[in-house]
Amino acid sequence: MTASRWIAPIAARNGPLVSYSNGHTVALFNSRLLTWHRSFTRDTAPPPPFLPPSYIYVHEWLADTFPVKHPGWRVFGFASKQGITFISKDRDYHKDWSDHARRHLKVFKKSGAILRLGTLDELKKHSKDCYLAEDILDHTIEQTESVFAEHPNDLEILVAETQDTHEPLGFFISANCPDVVQSYYVGGFYTAAGARLQAITGLIDWWFARSLEKGFASMNFGDMSGPRTPGFHPATGYSNFKTHFGIHRVWRPRTLWQIRFRFRNLDAVQPFIEK
């Protein structure tokens, strides 16, 4: 998904971007001293070469399929992991859930809570009432706004609320990417009442059902920590929660790098792209 045509305009909102046949390149930093580009490709073909007007040029390449041969590129850094679950109409996805998750789903269904689609304005209005660290909450809303701006028909805000007073219990945001037949988890949060009624588990169940209805083949729970990550790591709790829903930790290929130095004729070089 990171190299899809679907994601390219969303990435462009955060920095200058150039698209080409098998991916795109984002300019993370541009200055006279240093330029840093990050490229995403859908295959093993390298991104096109760039030579910006900077003394130091750093080019980071993330390929969906790691190239066996990569002349001129150095492997550096750890591969990241994402939580992916594969779905099919021929199989009940609940069978892949943990007993813990299935118990929580029963609690939610007994509560009589209502599930419905919500709006971005509604999400932002009630977000401060939910349990989520402020920095993560701000990032979640920012990501939601970015997806909505480029793909308003592919963003879904799922809401759980009480049946009698229609009080929000929780929100779940998903982005549907037809390019890779996948639905992607953007974020989610719940209120104090939602925590007691297991609103997030109910919303995730609805996300699974809706993804099946759309004919998707997989669902992406986003970044994951490793199974042996220390308990004090900030991502451990979120990652442990995701493991209850039949996910597989999928390792992304490691990152490839180029670093170049240039000290003459800088003014003769055309910039990558203007902001």
Description:
With 275 residues, this protein is an alpha+beta fold. It folds into two domains: 8-79 and 253-268, no CATH class; 81-251, Aminopeptidase, CATH 3.40.630. Helix content is 25%, strand content 30%. It has helices at residues 8-12, 99-111, 120-126, 134-150, 192-196, 199-213, 236-242, and strands at residues 17-20, 23-30, 34-41, 56-63, 74-75, 81-86, 114-117, 155-161, 168-177, 182-190, 218-224, 248-251, 256-261. A hairpin with a 4-residue loop joins β9 (168-177) and β10. The chain starts with 7 loop residues before the first helix and ends in a 14-residue tail after the last strand.
Layout of helices and strands:
Blueprint lengths: L7 H5 L4 E4 L2 E8 L3 E8 L14 E8 L10 E2 L5 E6 L12 H13 L2 E4 L2 H7 L7 H17 L4 E7 L6 E10 L4 E9 L1 H5 L2 H15 L4 E7 L11 H7 L5 E4 L4 E6 L14
Parallel strand pairs: 3-4, 10-11
Antiparallel strand pairs: 1-2, 2-3, 4-13, 5-13, 6-11, 6-12, 7-8, 8-9, 9-10
Helix pairs in contact: 2-6
